[in-house]
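Q: Sequence in, structure out?
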Amino acid sequence: MGFRLSPTDAVNLFIKTMKDKKDAGKTKIKLTNAFRGVSPSLFFGEDKWSGTTKAQYKIKLSEANLNQIAKNAKISKSEIKPAAGGKKTTSFVVNGYTIGLETSKKTGTSSDAASTRKQELASLWMIRSALSPQPKLFKNWDAVTKDKKAFKELTDIYPELITTATEWQSGLCAQQKKINEVLKGAGHYKEFNREGGFMNFISKLVKDEFMIGRKDSWNPADVWVIKTTDGTIEKTLIRAAKGGITRLNHTMIQMWEDKKLKGISLKAISGSKAQFEVVNVDQSLFKKMDNSVFELDKIEIPLNLVNGQFGTQDSRIHIKEGETKLIKFQVTQNSKGFNNLKVEGTMVGAGAARAGKVPLDMMKTMMSQDYHNDGISFSTGQFTNKWQDYPKTLAEFNKDSQIYYEMWNTIKNKVISGIQTKQEFDASFQSAWNTQEDIASSKLMQLTFIHAILKMQEKPQKEFLTNLTFLAQKKGRKFGPFGKLY
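A: Exactly. Output:
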């Protein structure tokens, strides 16, 4: 829930959600043209919208992006208005729908981490209010504002709730309602933790015992609700960990069922009502996983130019189960600049609910041990997630350009790349290296990763994609039990 969509994803959401589909094709073209030339890393479209002509579709973006869209959409300087906090706002109309633009200093890096912390602490406050010995539920945000103590505590945690993050108001209430429904245990839980305390304990335990440096690659719980504060749970888990990761997981499953310890992963709210999924607790999940087979739906690796640059910095791999579209993986830089790839999934049909990031160490092990395609022989179908092994300059690219062209030429009929010929392939990269060296290099990494998947035979390819999907969701016997609130 919030502002997180790239230009491409914003257009797709807009077209999917708009109530009147009569001129959807024309609307998509006009929106795409309006967003041409913007920097995707400084563009944040809202991830839910009512789809009516009465409700603006809102976008937060850099001032440079706002000026670019103003130029594309022929918005005059007089139509760009100053707003509180030194911001600028404007809007334009596409086939009767209003698009609202507001400048923001959001960058998708450290500011996101600070914002995430406040969001999760606010969610934890609402969870505590529902499950503590003296529970209090709030039907809607109006009820929160009428409770002076609750309103002050929540807005002290997350001040933006009354300024720029108002979309979280209803989401927090939806989270609390769902938690109350599925974890009914008022008076049963006494400790509610996000940082320090139990979070530090469990992170250190799996690091010391199993060399899991990032706790989230084993259990993505963002917050914990705990029955006791006398240390007995921690002592039990320490003993269990001595028996291995499977023993630790089994012990935590028993604690979940006994309402002693529950970890909750917080994701974007998928609609007007929150959803809750219990993961890695019921043995039936593991049996279902053993019989699951997922396969490719489509792959997008945009290599066409928009104003002399790549229009997007990512690629997208869409997975289906039978005829059901299941998950979309975004493959992109882990952070700005020359960097390794990250692979992050979003569940289809669940709004902006993230499945989670694929643990890259596990993906590397899988590619190396199970599929034997971890390496630098790219043309044969190998891949390595190490940015130093790819061109970083135009000169380095020119030296190996034929290798990358042949990879694209081999898979071009199986992917959506926006280009058709060798001339277009060469022109795209020659142009991008002038202003987007890091993105050009990342695109080559993405191409190599996708090429490696498509070089697999049908059966191992389906196995790989199935395993990748479960890795993103942290589902399986090797992962810890948790509940996903989304």
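The chain has a mean pLDDT of 92.
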